[in-house]
C-alpha cells in the first residue's frame, strides 16, 4: 500500500533547485538510471542518489531494480498534494479575474 505524502514533504523535495532539475530529467524520460542522470549533470553519483531518495520519499519517483542498475520513473500522481493545495487558492484567482473583467468592461465599454 502506498501512503500519500504530506504537502510539506512534496514542497521540501521540490524546493532544492538541483533536485527539481533531477526530477525534470526523470519526467522527460520513460525510465532513467542514476548513471544516466549523473552524466553531464555536474553532480556526483552519490548526490544524485540522495536527491532521488528524497524524491522517492515524497512520492514523486518510483524505482525499478534490474540487476546492478536501478531505473527511476516519474510518478505524476505524487504531485497531487501540491495540486490540491494550489487548487484551494484557485477560487481567489477566479474572483480576481472576474473583478478584472468587470473593471476592463467599465474602462472600455
Layout of secondary structure:
Elements: H1 7-15, H2 17-27, E1 32-33, H3 34-38, H4 45-57, E2 61-66, E3 69-74, H5 80-88, H6 90-107
Antiparallel strand pairs: 1-3, 2-3
Helix pairs in contact: 1-4, 2-4
Compose a concise summary of this entry:
With about 110 residues, this protein is an alpha+beta fold. The chain contains 6 helices and 3 strands.
Features:
109 residues, Arc Repressor Mutant, subunit A, three-stranded antiparallel β-sheet, 60% helix
- The top-level CATH class is Mainly Alpha
List the helices and strands in order: HHEHHEEHH
Helicity level: 55-70%
Q: Label the overall shape.
A: elongated
Number of helices: 6
* Distance between the amino and carboxyl termini: 57 Å
Strand arrangement across the biggest beta sheet: 1-3-2
CATH architecture tag: Orthogonal Bundle
Report the sheet-strand fraction. 5-15%
Q: Give the averaged pLDDT, no decimals.
A: 90
The CATH topology turns out to be Arc Repressor Mutant, subunit A
Q: C-alpha Rg, in Å?
A: 19 Å
Class based on secondary structure composition and strand pairing: alpha+beta
Low-confidence stretches: none
Overall tally of structural domains: 1
The CATH homology group name: Winged helix-like DNA-binding domain superfamily/Winged helix DNA-binding domain
Sheet bearing the most strands, described? 3 strands, antiparallel
Number of strands: 3
Characterization of the model:
The structure is a single chain. The protein has a single domain, classed as Arc Repressor Mutant, subunit A, CATH 1.10.10. The radius of gyration is 19 Å and the shape is elongated. Helix 1 (7-15) runs antiparallel to helix 4 and helix 2 (17-27) crosses helix 4 (45-57). A hairpin with a 2-residue loop joins strand 2 and strand 3 (69-74). It starts with 6 loop residues before the first helix and ends with a helix. It has helices at 7-15, 17-27, 34-38, 45-57, 80-88, 90-107, and strands at residues 32-33, 61-66, 69-74. The protein has six helices and three strands, in the order ααβααββαα. With 109 residues, it is an alpha+beta fold. It has a three-stranded antiparallel sheet.
